[in-house]
Amino acid sequence: MRRRKPLHIGVDEPLMQPHHRRPMNRREFISQGFRAGCAGLLGTSLYSLLGPRAHAISPDLLDPAFTNYSTCDLGKVAGRKIPFICFDLAGGANFAGGNVIVGGPGGQRDALSTSGYATLGLPPDILPFNANAATLSGDFTDDTLGLLFHSESAMLRGILEKASGVAGFCNGAVIPGRSENDTGNNPHNPMYGIYRAGLRGQILQLIGSENSMSGGNSMAPAMLIDPELQPTKVDRPSDASGLVDVGDLKFLLEDTEDIVSVLESMKRMTDFKMDLVNTRISNPTDEDQRLKDRFSCEYLRSADTLENFSNPDALNPEQDPLIVGDAGIFTADEFNDDREFRKTASVMKLVIDGIAGCGTVEMGGYDYHGNTRNSTDARDLRAGRCIGACLEYARRKSTPLMLYVFSDGSLSSNGSSEIVNGVEKFTWSSDNSSTACSFFLVYDPGGMPQLWDDGLSDPLMHQQIGWMRPDASVETSSTPAANNVNLNVEMVILNYMALHGEQGLFATDNFFPSQGLGDPLGLDRYIAFQPLPSISGGVLT
Fold it and tell me: Which of 381, 431, 439 is nearest to 410 (CA)?
C-alpha cells in the first residue's frame, strides 16, 4: 500500500503524532502546538541608568539610622550585569547539524561522518565538509554570527532577517549534551542560577510563562531553586505595562505623589506592628527578622516602582517605535498577527531596557518529527526571527546581551528527503536524545566577543564545549555536562560569569560551592569567551 505523503503543517497548527498517545498534560499540549507557549523574565536594576536625582521617597525611610528595618535594597545594584534571555523550544527541536554545526574532538570544524550528518538531516549534496579531505570546506557553512551555522539553516535565516546589523559584534558557542525527549523534567532552565550570579530587578526578580517553579517548559535545577523567587507569569504587552500596578489606589487617587505618600504610610504602620511583634519574642531568629524585613519593604518597593515608572506605556513594547512600526523590528501587521512576536517583544523590551534582567521565551510546537521538512523549517524560521529580534533590539539600544537556546531532546532522520526552498534536505523521522545540544550567542556593541585563550589549545576549540562521535551521537565523556543537564546549566552560568571576568568566583562559597564541573582550577576549558569589552569591574560600563 502506498504511503500517503504528509501534508504541510502551518506554524500555528498543532502537530498530530499518530505514534504518540493523545496529549494529556500541559507540557504535551505545548510541545505539539495545541497550546501556545508563553514568555518570562527576571529582572536587573535600572537604578544606575537613572543618574543622580532627588528621590521622592521620604529620606527617613531610606536611611538605616532612622528605620528599624532594612532599606529594602532600593537601587542596591551599583551597575548593570549583562541582560540574559533564554529560548525554551518545547518538544525536542533540532539544533545540531541542520542549524548549528557540530563536530568531533577538534571542535566545530572537526567533521563528522557522512552518515552522521545524514542523521542530522543533511544529505551528501549539502555536507559542511569536503568528503575527500574530511575537513570543513565552508561551502555550506556561515560564520556571520561568529558561531558556525549551516548556510541552509532556517533558524539562521530568521535571525539574519531581523538582525543583519549584528555581524562583527556577535559570537557564540555550542554545547553537545544529551537531554531526554518529550519531557519537561530536563532541568534546562538557568534563571535561578543567573539570579544568584548577580542579576537583580527593581520591579520583579523572576517571571515565567507558566505557573511553575521554572516559569517555562523545562525545569530548573532543584539545587538552585529559591521558593521566594517563584516566577510570575508575563506573556503579552499588557502584562509588561501591567507591572506598574498599585491596585485600587489608582482609582481613589489621581496624583502619583499622593499614592506614594499612602504607600509610605502603610510602610510606617507595618513597621509599627512589627515592633509590637518584636516585644513578644524574646529570642527572634534570623528567619524571623528576614520575614519582617520582607513585610516591611513591600509597600516601599511599590512606592519606588510607581515613582520611577509612573507611565505604564514606557514598559509597553507596542508603544516603542524601535520595536513596532515603519522603522521598527516588526511591522504592525506581523506584530498583531503573531503571538510569538508579541511575547518575544514583551520580554526583550523589559530585559534589554534594564527594567528586567533575565527572560525566558517559551515556544511550543517543536515535537515536530514525522511532519514535512517545510513545516518543521518554518517553525525554526520563526524561532530564528524571535532570536534575531532580541539581538537587533540590543544593537539598537547599544546594550550587550547573552542568549541561551535549548530544547527537551532532539531528532534524527532516516534518509527520506524533501525539497525545501530549492534545496534537498532529509526529513525528521523520530526523537533522538543522543543528537541533542544547546547553544548560546553573545552580542556586545563594544566589539565581537573574543574566544577564550588558555594558551594550551586553539581558541576555536572553545567554540564547541564537548563533542560528538562520528555517528553524530554525543560523546558522553567529553564534558561533565554531556550526560547531565544539571551540569549543562552550571556550564552556562560559568560562561555568563566569565563574560564579567568573575569566573574565579564561580566555585566559591557565595556562589556555587557544590558545583559539579570539577576542579575549580580546571574550569577554564569550559569557558567560551573572554570578558566583554563593555564590562569593567564586573558590570557594564
Answer: 431
- Cell 535594597 sits at which residue? 73
What span, in angstroms and rounded, lies between the C-alpha atoms of 348 and 540? 18
Query: Grid coordinates in use for 236?
Result: 503579552
pLDDT band at 48 (very low <50, low <70, confident <90, very high): very low
Give, in order, the Cα–Cα distances in Å from 385 to each of 105, 109, 172, 357: 31, 26, 17, 21
The C-alpha torsion from 534 through 536 and 540 to 541, rounded to 10°, is -80
Q: What pTM value is reported for the model?
A: 0.82
C-alpha distance from residue 511 to each of 187, 436, 493, 527 (Å): 19, 28, 10, 17
Cell output for 274: 512589627
Please name which of 87, 74, 11, 17 lies closest in space to residue 360, comparing C-alpha atoms.
87
Strands 232-233 and 358-363, by their bridges, are: unpaired
Domain ranges of the chain: 26-45+80-243+322-540
Condensed to tens digits (0 to 9), the pLDDT of residues 417-437 reads: 999 999 999 999 999 999 999
Question: How do the residues of the chain divide into helix, strand and coil, expressed in percent and rounded to 5?
Answer: 35, 15, 50
Sequence-separated (6 or more) residues with CB below 8 Å from residue 92: 31, 181, 182, 366, 367, 369, 407, 408, 409, 410, 411, 431, 436
The mean per-residue pLDDT over the stretch 34-63 comes to: 47
Grid look-up 527537551 returns 408
Give me the phi and psi of 170, to 5 degrees please.
-130, 145
Q: Which residues of 485-518 are buried (b: 16+ CB within 10 A; e: fewer)?
A: bbbbbbbbbbbbbbbbebbebbbeeebbeebebe
pLDDT band at 42 (very low <50, low <70, confident <90, very high): very low
Evaluate whether 72 touches 297 at the Cβ level (below 8 Å): yes
DSSP classification of residue 7: P
Residue 423, beta-bridge partner list: 420
Dihedral sign, CA of 106, 137, 406, 447? Answer: positive
Nearest CA to 523 out of 503, 499, 501 is that of 503
Q: How far is CA 438 from CA 143, 176, 217, 491, 517, in A?
A: 17, 7, 15, 11, 17
